[in-house]
Amino acid sequence: MPNDTERTSMGAKTEALARQFQGKARGALATLEKLGDTDWKKVTAAEKWTEGAAEERNGVHRRATHDG
């Protein structure tokens, strides 16, 4: 069982990773919000999906457009 020091250390690491993740997510959303209709309809080279379909699969577009 972890001692108090180990718990504090893991808690601090968890918080740091959560802040890092939130920052990256905000950055991704800021980029996605700049895209226009033409951008969302562009087809990706690898999967041959539209950008909108690729981001919808990732759940990012849904969050960017439906978050209040």
Write up this protein.
By secondary structure, the protein is mainly alpha-helical. It has one domain (4-66). Helices cover 74% and strands 0% of the residues. It has 4 helices and no strands. It has helices spanning 4-33, 37-41, 51-58, 60-66. Helix 1 crosses helix 4 (60-66). The longest helix has 30 residues, at 4-33. The radius of gyration is 18 Å and the shape is elongated. The termini are far apart.
Q: Termini separation (Å)?
A: 41 Å
Q: What's the number of extended β-strand segments?
A: 0
In angstroms, what is the radius of gyration?
A: 18 Å
What would you call the shape?
elongated
**How does the helix and strand content classify structurally?**
mainly alpha
Features of this protein?
single chain, 68 residues, mainly alpha, 4 helices, 74% helix
Quick synopsis:
By secondary structure, the protein is mainly alpha-helical. It is 74% helix and 0% strand. The chain has one domain (4-66).
List the helices and strands and how they pair.
Blueprint: H1 4-33, H2 37-41, H3 51-58, H4 60-66
Helix pairs in contact: 1-4
